[in-house]
């Protein structure tokens, strides 16, 4: 391989909005057959909005929004930003902690508040129906509770990027098998997958386990590309044969990847793979 031809390839990459760590990266794209896509912030915009509030009997809406919003104001998660933005006022936060892949907990106005997936709670009671209904509509159901009891379900919605479906079509044209990978629940993941034309979904995966999904696919004999944007994608991006990070994502993810898609447009991932295959063909 002549280094010059590879560098021409990387120069073209920059024009397409793809940053390549080093020319040797291109070599690893050659036999990629599977492309694993993180959902939030990669296939979707990651800009969430609060679209519905369901209260348990006797619970005050403003109180739910104040307690949940205060707790979420300390989190960087896109869901947290949506909930914090919907709070009319903030209370006093004296303790805060992330529960990896599940949510957040802390003390607000002297009360122990938990916000996140239903798995953080024992019983949802009357709220179970609201949760199921929200998820059926492809929304993320976020449970808010305090004093050890679930008090409300917040329906949060994200939107699919307008370019994602076309990107998936291009992956298929390149002979790649797309797989959607997310920590979010199965119903939400299926809805997003349906919208963009992906058949294979691996949902409810804890952040630490995303890397194991990539390893498993590799053990099955696949050459795997992974596209992600979040801190929770970094290990999987590093493990993949080719790690592609969204330029709109976190620094940790960008560092873990081999390629950066500057504009956060998934179609650039297809461009990157096509470009590198072509570049390699030139130098063979
Ligand atoms: P993804 O893989 O989709 O980027 P994460 O692994 O970051 O998602 O989170 C998995 C799930 O945990 C989210 O879909 C959400 O239901 C819940 N969750 C995580 N962090 C928070 C938070 N700060 N507030 C509410 N829910 C959260
Ligand atoms: Mg993400």
TrEMBL record:
It comes from the Bacteria. Belongs to the cation transport ATPase (P-type) (TC 3.A.3) family. Type IB subfamily. It is found in: Cell membrane. Coiled coil: none annotated. This is Cation-transporting P-type ATPase B. The chain holds residues 392 to 675 of 724 of the full protein.
